[in-house]
UniProtKB/TrEMBL annotation:
Family: Belongs to the ComF/GntX family.
Coiled-coil stretches noted in the UniProt entry, renumbered to this chain: none
Gene3D superfamilies: 3.40.50.2020
Entry-linked InterPro entries: ComF/GntX_DNA_util-trans, PRTase-like, PRTase_dom
PANTHER family noted in UniProt: DNA UTILIZATION PROTEIN YHGH
Record's protein name: ComF family protein
């Protein structure tokens, strides 16, 4: 399998993940409402989703490096066309400590660690925690996803930075990252999201 062929090609809307004809951050529809910038290496549905799933479910970490390379390429491209500014720090979407104990690792943290050392941007550990062991988001409707995550995260250290990037393995509807982003509003910290794969759900645009 040629990995790069499965990664995003061309210009992709950072709001909804749709292909665009012009090098811009957002498509016309997403420009109308403020959206988080979500940068992904690939679409979960275009051949690589299985590999991204293997990180979490099979502890297959080799794929991280390859997809982190593709993600960095994407980030560099977006910076070159003026659609993105590098963050001052990275924060991984945390697991609840109970789930971390069960699984033994947090795939988002592993990805963030790789990005941090490749880009030389500090990774902030322990500033964001998951206070509740929530149900898995998969299979829940939009409303239940939001309810499931209500007050599920807490910032335990105040972050006084202009820009941070939240790191996750897969972003689907963006409920999780949008929920976390709210915590950074009081300090006016701009949040962007970096992930390996984006699973575009219908009507989430
Ligand atoms: Zn869009």
């Amino acid at each position: 399998m040629c990995l790069s062929a499965c990664c995003y090609q061309g210009d992709i809307c950072l709001g909804c993940g749709r292909q665009m004809q012009l090098p811009m951050a957002f498509c016309g529809k997403c420009m109308l409402t403020p959206k988080l910038k979500i940068v992904a290496a690939c679409s979960y549905h275009q051949g690589l989703g299985h590999w991204v799933g293997q990180i979490k479910y099979q502890a297959q970490f080799a794929v991280i490096d390859v997809l982190v390379d593709a993600l960095i390429e994407r980030i560099s491209y977006l910076i070159s066309i003026g659609c993105l500014t590098l963050p001052q720090a990275l924060i991984a979407v945390p697991l609840h400590k109970k789930r971390l104990q069960q699984r033994g690792f947090n795939q988002a943290w592993l990805i963030a660690k790789a990005l941090s050392s490749r880009l030389n941007i500090p990774l902030l550990d322990d500033c964001l925690i998951r206070t509740r062991a929530t149900e898995p988001q998969a299979g829940l409707s939009g409303k239940r996803r939001r309810k499931n995550l209500l007050n599920a995260f807490e910032l335990v250290t105040e972050i006084n930075l202009q820009r941070i990037a939240l790191i996750d393995d897969v972003v689907t509807t963006g409920t999780t990252v949008n929920e976390i982003t709210k915590l950074f509003m009081p300090t006016h910290t701009q949040v962007q999201v970096w992930c390996l794969a984006r699973a575009e759900a219908p009507n989430c645009g």
